[in-house]
Design a protein that fits this description.
With about 80 residues, the protein is α+β, with helices and mostly antiparallel strands. The protein has a single domain, classed as RNA-binding S4 domain (Structural Genomics Hypothetical 15.5 Kd Protein In mrcA-pckA Intergenic Region, Chain A). The strands form 2 sheets. Strands 1-7-6-3-4 form a 5-stranded mixed β-sheet. β3 and β4 form a beta hairpin. α1 packs across α2. The longest helix is centred in the middle third of the chain and has 9 residues.
Protein backbone atom coordinates (compact mmCIF):
# COMPACT_ATOMS: atom_id res chain seq x y z
CA UNK A 1 0.00 0.00 0.00
CA UNK A 2 1.42 3.41 -0.90
CA UNK A 3 1.50 6.33 1.49
CA UNK A 4 -1.11 9.01 0.77
CA UNK A 5 0.31 12.31 -0.48
CA UNK A 6 -2.79 14.34 0.42
CA UNK A 7 -2.01 17.71 1.95
CA UNK A 8 -3.69 19.04 5.06
CA UNK A 9 -5.87 21.91 3.87
CA UNK A 10 -6.10 25.01 6.05
CA UNK A 11 -8.41 27.95 5.37
CA UNK A 12 -7.19 31.25 6.83
CA UNK A 13 -9.63 34.17 7.06
CA UNK A 14 -7.94 37.57 7.00
CA UNK A 15 -8.59 40.08 9.76
CA UNK A 16 -6.96 42.87 7.73
CA UNK A 17 -6.52 43.61 4.01
CA UNK A 18 -3.51 41.25 3.74
CA UNK A 19 -1.08 39.17 5.81
CA UNK A 20 2.66 38.73 5.35
CA UNK A 21 3.89 35.23 4.52
CA UNK A 22 5.99 34.82 7.67
CA UNK A 23 3.06 35.96 9.83
CA UNK A 24 0.75 33.46 8.12
CA UNK A 25 3.09 30.55 8.84
CA UNK A 26 3.08 31.50 12.53
CA UNK A 27 -0.68 32.19 12.68
CA UNK A 28 -1.49 28.76 11.21
CA UNK A 29 1.04 27.00 13.49
CA UNK A 30 3.03 25.71 10.51
CA UNK A 31 6.01 27.37 12.25
CA UNK A 32 6.42 28.06 15.95
CA UNK A 33 8.42 31.30 15.60
CA UNK A 34 9.22 34.09 13.20
CA UNK A 35 12.79 32.86 12.96
CA UNK A 36 11.65 29.38 12.00
CA UNK A 37 9.27 30.85 9.40
CA UNK A 38 12.07 32.96 7.91
CA UNK A 39 14.40 29.96 7.66
CA UNK A 40 11.71 27.81 6.04
CA UNK A 41 10.95 30.51 3.46
CA UNK A 42 14.66 31.13 2.74
CA UNK A 43 15.21 27.38 2.21
CA UNK A 44 12.95 27.45 -0.85
CA UNK A 45 10.33 25.14 0.68
CA UNK A 46 7.41 27.58 0.41
CA UNK A 47 5.26 28.07 -2.68
CA UNK A 48 2.80 30.90 -3.32
CA UNK A 49 0.29 30.19 -6.08
CA UNK A 50 2.51 27.30 -7.32
CA UNK A 51 5.63 29.52 -7.59
CA UNK A 52 8.60 29.34 -5.23
CA UNK A 53 8.45 32.28 -2.80
CA UNK A 54 11.53 33.47 -0.88
CA UNK A 55 10.23 36.87 0.31
CA UNK A 56 9.32 36.39 3.95
CA UNK A 57 7.22 39.54 3.94
CA UNK A 58 5.34 38.77 0.71
CA UNK A 59 1.82 40.16 1.01
CA UNK A 60 -0.94 37.56 0.77
CA UNK A 61 -4.45 38.48 -0.33
CA UNK A 62 -7.77 36.60 -0.65
CA UNK A 63 -7.52 33.80 -3.21
CA UNK A 64 -3.80 33.19 -2.68
CA UNK A 65 -2.73 29.61 -1.95
CA UNK A 66 0.42 28.76 0.04
CA UNK A 67 1.95 25.28 -0.10
CA UNK A 68 4.58 24.23 2.41
CA UNK A 69 5.43 20.66 3.35
CA UNK A 70 2.22 18.75 4.04
CA UNK A 71 0.11 21.92 4.26
CA UNK A 72 -1.97 23.84 1.73
CA UNK A 73 -3.27 27.17 3.05
CA UNK A 74 -6.07 29.07 1.30
CA UNK A 75 -6.41 32.78 2.09
CA UNK A 76 -10.01 33.99 2.37
CA UNK A 77 -11.50 37.49 2.57
CA UNK A 78 -11.39 39.35 5.85
CA UNK A 79 -14.24 38.91 8.27
CA UNK A 80 -16.15 42.11 9.05
Amino acid sequence: MSKSSAKEKITFSLKTEFIQLNQLLKATNVCMSGGEAGELIASGSVFLNKKNEKRKRAKLFPGDVVNVGDFEILIKEKIN
